[in-house]
Each structure stands twice: as C-alpha cells, then as structure tokens.
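input
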Amino acid sequence: MIGNGCIKCGSTDAGQKDVAMTGTGLSKMFDIQNNQFTVVYCRNCGYSEFYNKEASAGSNLLDFFFGG
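output
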C-alpha cells in the first residue's frame, strides 16, 4: 500500500543522509564530487532511494520515500 512504509518491508523507520559523488571524465579523474544527493533509507531492511539535491530542495523526502 502506498504511503504505509518502506516498499520492501513495510517499516516506517527511515533516515536520510547527504552524499556527494564524482561524475565522469575529468571530475572522476580528479575526484571532484560535484554530484550531490540526499539518500533516504529504511533503517530496518536498508532499502535506499537517491534524490538529486538540486531537484528536491525544499521537499519532504521522507514523504516521497513512503509514497506520500
């Protein structure tokens, strides 16, 4: 059911973290981490979803994770 917890296990215990990653080409070669994401994850089973920080600014990502 949408909006009732993790889509894999149904848990409602979620967390989120900000991460940065390299891209391709020169940014990869020089380890420039210019791609920033927020990861929302289930603390029970570990299922994770990545959200582009630029596209999701101001949004409640936990609501997206739970299908809200």
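quick obs: The longest strand covers residues 14-21.
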